[in-house]
Amino acid sequence: MIMNQPEIILIAALAASNRVMGKDGKLPWSIPADSQRFVNLIIGHAVIMGRKTWEYDLEKRPIHQCFNVVVSASTPEDEIAELQLQYSSNLLFVTSISEALQKVSHHPQAFIVGGASIYSQTLTLAHTWELTLVDGDFEGDTFFPEYEFLIGNQFEMVNLEPQPGFRYETYKRIL
Predict the structure, then answer these.
(1) Hey, which of 12, 70, 125, 142 would disulfide with 22, CB 3.0 to 4.6 Å?
(2) Among residues of the chain, what percentage have pLDDT more than 70?
(3) Dist CA 55 CA 62 (whole Å)
């Protein structure tokens, strides 16, 4: 039996100059248009994230109207049980990326929403990258993995949308 595989879409915002994504658990910028685009793209789909993204960015609340999968080997069992009872239909905790991908196999699309470790593990597994590259120099403690070396041999840009102060870049896997 062949298991269905969703389209895996990695979605991230990063500084164009140095790949900074975060500082102290938060984005180092505020771009309402990008936040709205993020929601518009992921709504109704599965999202896969790491523990720190779950705790700091989402403050332990699942993204509304998404099937949320948190990859964590360190979240206490009693906390998981309580959260899954509270958000039973759209929250699941797993211990690995492979387990997360199995759990979302019935979804047409699964969005990888962070953080750095999860992006590193899924960069080459993804079919599509939806990147927001923010102009300017930002200090941070969380970085998007090096990806430029994959462009041209494993991924190609299929869309570029310049915006004031940032740009959207979409890449697809080269078949």
Answers:
(1) 142
(2) 98
(3) 10
Answer whether 0.85 is exceeded by the pTM. Answer: yes
Whole-number Å distance between alpha carbons of 103 and 105: 6
> Could you tell me the two tokens for 133?
């590259």
DSSP 34-99: HHHHHHHHHTTSEEEEEHHIIIIISTT-PPTTSEEEEE-SSS-HHHHHHHHHHTTTTEEEESSHHH
> Contact 146/43 with Cβ under 8 angstroms?
no
Q: Mention the CATH class of domain 43-168.
A: alpha beta
The per-residue pLDDT for range 62-110, each reduced to its tens digit, is 888 999 999 998 777 888 778 777 777 789 999 999 999 999 999 999 9
Which of 8-17, 29-38, 59-68 bottoms out in mean pLDDT, i.e. has the lowest?
A: 59-68
What are the structural domain ranges in the chain?
Answer: 43-168
Report whether 42 contacts 12 (CB < 8 A): no
Distance, CA of 125 to CA of 114 (rounded, Å)? 14
β-pair partners for 132: 13, 168
Question: Which strand ranges, in their side-by-side order, compose the sheet holding 109-112?
Answer: 91-94, 67-71, 46-50, 109-112, 7-15, 128-134, 166-173, 155-163
